Amino acid sequence: MVVEDLNKKWKRVILSTSPITPLEHCEWLNKLLMEIWSNFMNPKLSLRFQSIVEKRLKHRKSRLIEKVELLEFSLGSSPPCLGLHGTRWSTSGDQRVMRLGFDWDTTDISIMLLAKVAKPFFGTAKIVINSLHVKGDLLLMPILDGKAILYSFISTPEVRITVAFGSGGSQSLPATELPGVSSWLVKLLTDTLSKTMVEPRRQCFSLPAVDLRKKAVGGIIYVTVISASKLSRSSLKGSPTRRQPSFAVDGLQEHFDDKDLQTFVEVELGELTRRTYVRPGSSPQWDSTFNMVLHDNTGTVRFHLYERTPGSVKYDYLASCEIKMKYVSDDSTIFWAIGPDSGVIARHSEFCGKEVEMVLPFEGVNAGKQLAVRLVVKEWQFSDGSYSFNNFRVSSQQMLNGSSNFLSSTGRKINVTVVEGKDLITKDKFGKCNPYVKLQYGKVLQKTRTAHFFNPIWNQKFEFDEIGGGEYLKIKCYTEEVFGDDSIGSARINLEGLVEGSVRDVWVPLEKVNSGELRIQIEAVSIDDYEGSRGSAYPGNGWIELVLVEARDLIAADLRGTSDPYVRVHYGNLKRRTKVMYRTLNPRWHQTLEFPDDGSPLELHVKDHNALLPTSNIGDCVVEYQRLPPNVMSDKWIPLQGVKRGEIHVQVTRKVPELQKRPSLDPEPSLTKAHQISSQMKQMMIKLQSSIEDSNLEGVSNPLSELEALQDMQEEYMVQLETEQMLLLNKIKELGQEILNSSPSLSRRSSGS
């Protein structure tokens, strides 16, 4: 009933055309606020403000504090008092506004910080904020026919904070006041308010007709910088006029200067920045579109105008403007900005894919200098794994069957494929680009191979164990250089609530650089599906045939610039190896190994052989074979991980033939061959012992290498024997089952027993 009554009053306010309404007392409002503060407002606002405070603390620390951590955050049980002297609606231009007194004087808040104190002090201390007083006047502005309200302080509010100091545990400071901390906290809060919600900076509170109860955790937005109008050096902030002494008429001289103006716009969203091309004249036309990523349900897109000085690498800042945006719980998006004469520009996009065009005045400059932009929200992503795009909502399994589809960190695997990149930058003076990508998810690091183009293609797949708690996939892109690799951008992707059976294919723009995007494909796989795909589709009736063909472009492990590479193969508990190829970076083995197909991971470790010293690792990889169809050979080059370059060429087949059709590795019986190998190993041991007694170190290398190869060959034949035994037993079971099925009397006797 209260909600319905308030909605009726709100409609009357919006529809009212009177320039000013009668003074209204606010006792009812403060009473209502008191009733809902403890159970609703306090926990919701505490959670929201906690994230804001944590971000601000990272960037703004006192000189006496080396590191600060937020331990506790609660706004207490006492809400602020609103409109103690009453309030009324008035009109400013064509905008309805309300001026509302705000007085929050509370002594039961609980905000606790743990500070590591900088020199000359040592140790830690707890900083407890136990009282807060904020007093000022709020300005409320309804926009979009009452669908939302913009709010801000008319001027910087009065702020007072009381701080207590306590023990921080072992090796902590005594509970005495640290000089300057109280004033630092006051300044921190005041600056935060000034930059975010003091006129004309405004926050938005939406009033949707429908609440879908979806938590947006990120989005993709396309920003187009269209054009600017009436630019001139003399009126733009940050750039004094450059008119040279001339006998020309002033007006003509100014016109010449503005015509000669060369400008570009830098678009900023969080740590992501992009630049338009440079265009000449006082009314430049850019029409540049950028793919931007938002990591929250709100964001601010800033536009910075620069002038490029001809014949120089110097850029001069001219002016700025910004647009704020917010996801609304009815699946729409609100955009708002500062209009002419500190007014309001607001737009509403009812669904993803709808274009919004805005003409923004540059802040702090003469009227008429404007920037035209276009924004399109391509997608909103939600914490339950669903996402909205192009007027459609793709639901997660939670929306389909009513149960949560999000599993714990041990319940799913995340497959991430780095597909390709485009428009990557280079820091090489010769214009070369040798990019590679590092992925970090939790504590796990993965790396692609190095490419050699500005638009590289990797198509490399990596696997991670899913981590709960909203862990981001961190992406860093580098270019390989002779004297150290250079960073050419980074990004992060929220993997919260991924839906099984659906591959997310996205272009991710790189942050902290002016250009560059990576195409990433992400898929969540349940542990049951994963294990099922790993295991044999033909249990107990097949084997894996692996042919190690060759490798190329390996790294040099020796001082002479070469390597002596061989491959160590791990398959479950089994280990095999190839022969050593001496003094080459492009070895050819052409060796065939076989393993019983039990679904174990097939890992390859490329090593550099050393006779006396420990072997060096020159790359690793995993051979994916689990989803191969039977008796179909997969021929592929696999990039090596953990090194800057190198690939290995393998052929892998899941063999599932009839027992009598299985070819043997060798026409000789396996046992006879194994005895021959044992005899050869004894001879090599005699040679080795002789070389050691003669102190012939060069003669030690070859017998050692041959011994290792013979040992691996012996193990290989033992595996063949095990495989043949397994296949024979399976065939006996099949024949026994056929006999039972073909004889009814035997079948009945078997079931009776």
What does this structure look like?
It is found in: Membrane. Residues 22-208 form the SMP-LTD domain. Its main location: membrane. Residues 704-738 form a coiled coil. One of its GO terms (molecular function) is lipid binding. The chain is of the alpha+beta class and 753 residues long. The chain folds into five domains: 18-206; 216-235 and 258-382, Immunoglobulin-like; 410-526, C2 domain (Immunoglobulin-like, Sandwich); 543-655, C2 domain (Immunoglobulin-like, Sandwich), CATH 2.60.40; 673-717. Helix content is 22%, strand content 40%. The strands form seven sheets. Strands 1, 2, 3, 4, 5, 6, 7, 8 and 9 form a nine-stranded antiparallel β-sheet that branches. Strands 11, 12, 13, 15, 16, 17 and 18 form a seven-stranded antiparallel β-sheet that branches. The longest helix is centred in the C-terminal third of the chain and has 45 residues, at 698-742. It starts with a helix and ends with a helix.
